[in-house]
């Protein structure tokens, strides 16, 4: 009997358009002989099921069900394709846990922790995970440019603490540019992390649960045509994403081991894609994404294909992994 699968997409953040693309690729890729697929758009002003003719049917938020022509439909599993809030920060995970509906991403705590760059790095540092030097600012704090430069140096990166897809990020070369960069970051979040510039090879590493095993996918090297791996580089083709990465076997083993260590330390489930820059031959963690891009051009699907895993298998496996854990 085919399972009813809700594919949630959209969200409340600046990443909603990317999420809609990801969700539609999941919808198109899942095997329709195994699954009844339902596109569920989650926005602040509406939660709706969107059918093949773009008709909208409201979602009953009390039990996450929909009603079509008088028939009530409930879901066996949710495929989470929401980047940013509320799909990557723990809110949807908590909601589905309360409703006892399995979903494909990590649990609530892990989602909330990894979505907060500052907190995530703080948890991982005692385990020996290397990171950039950092400086924190909250909205309303006094901004001391001299203290910032003394701590992290120049150039540095000013980042919104809880945002994805490089929204709210500026690379700063001069102390005089800091206030404008901080204002830009505060447009995305009320917390900021400022990090030292790491000059080295940047790589992205996908880790998934595949057929019951924690699996590290082939590594992707990031070569941005821009000053750093910004939104345009990520989504508008202004970068090279080279899989497998052009790095030595020793470097590859180091970053694979760190990526798996991060996955295990944080007790992750589902998908992760973590970003690293090599400094002095050692991988330094930038961030961990728990709902990475799922379009055909996105990094993790590219890595899966390099490992011989089709999109149909990649997405279907995520559903089967969470479904088999049910009592």
Word description of this protein:
A hairpin with a 2-residue loop joins strand 5 and strand 6 (71-73). The protein is globular. It is α+β, with helices and mostly antiparallel strands. The protein folds into 3 domains: 3-104, 3-Layer(aba) Sandwich (Rossmann fold), CATH 3.40.50; 112-130 and 199-324, ATP-grasp fold, B domain (D-amino Acid Aminotransferase, Chain A, domain 1), CATH 3.30.470.20; 134-196, Dna Ligase, domain 1, CATH 3.30.1490.20. It is built from 10 helices and 17 strands. It has a 7-stranded mixed beta sheet with strand order 6-5-4-3-2-1-7.
Short characterization:
The chain is an alpha+beta fold and 327 residues long.
Question: Which key phrases capture this entry?
Answer:
single chain; D-amino Acid Aminotransferase, Chain A, domain 1; 327 residues; Rossmann fold; Dna Ligase, domain 1; globular; alpha+beta
What is the secondary structure topology, with strand pairs?
Blueprint lengths: L2 E8 L5 H14 L5 E8 L4 E4 L5 E5 L4 E4 L2 E3 L3 E4 L10 H9 L8 H8 L1 H8 L9 E5 L6 H8 L3 E5 L9 E3 L5 H9 L4 E6 L5 E9 L2 E4 L3 E5 L6 H5 L3 E4 L6 H17 L6 E8 L2 E8 L9 H8 L4 H14 L3
Parallel strand pairs: 1-2, 1-7
Antiparallel strand pairs: 2-3, 3-4, 4-5, 5-6, 8-11, 9-10, 9-11, 12-13, 12-14, 12-16, 14-15, 16-17
């Amino acid at each position: 009997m085919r399972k009813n699968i809700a594919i949630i997409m959209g969200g409340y953040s600046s990443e909603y358009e990317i999420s809609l693309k990801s969700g539609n690729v999941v919808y198109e890729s899942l095997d329709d002989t195994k699954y009844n697929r339902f596109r569920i758009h989650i926005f602040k002003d509406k939660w709706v099921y969107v059918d093949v003719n773009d008709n909208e049917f409201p979602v009953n938020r009390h039990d996450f069900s929909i009603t079509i022509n008088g028939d009530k439909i409930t879901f066996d599993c949710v495929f989470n394709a929401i980047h940013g809030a509320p799909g990557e920060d723990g809110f949807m995970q908590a909601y589905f846990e309360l409703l006892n509906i399995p979903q494909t991403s990590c649990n609530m705590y892990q989602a909330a922790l990894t979505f907060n760059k500052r907190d995530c790095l703080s948890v991982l540092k005692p385990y020996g995970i290397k990171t950039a030097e950092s400086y924190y600012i909250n909205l309303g704090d006094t901004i001391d440019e001299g203290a910032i430069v003394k701590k992290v140096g120049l150039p540095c990166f000013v980042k919104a603490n809880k945002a994805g897809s490089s929204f709210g990020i500026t690379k700063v070369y001069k102390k005089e540019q800091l206030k404008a960069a901080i204002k830009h970051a505060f447009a995305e979040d009320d917390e900021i992390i400022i990090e030292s510039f790491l000059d080295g090879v940047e790589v992205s590493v996908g880790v998934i649960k595949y057929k019951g095993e924690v699996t590290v996918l082939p590594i992707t090297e990031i070569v941005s045509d821009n000053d750093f791996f910004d939104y345009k580089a990520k989504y508008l083709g202004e970068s090279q994403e080279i899989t497998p990465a052009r790095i030595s076997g020793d470097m590859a083993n180091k970053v694979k081991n760190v990526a798996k260590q991060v996955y295990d330390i944080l007790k992750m489930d589902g998908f992760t894609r973590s970003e690293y820059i090599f400094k002095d031959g050692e991988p330094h963690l930038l961030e961990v994404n728990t709902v990475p891009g799922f379009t055909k051009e996105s990094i993790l699907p590219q890595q899966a294909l390099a490992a011989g895993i089709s999109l149909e298998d990649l997405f279907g496996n995520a559903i089967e992994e969470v479904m088999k854990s049910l009592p």
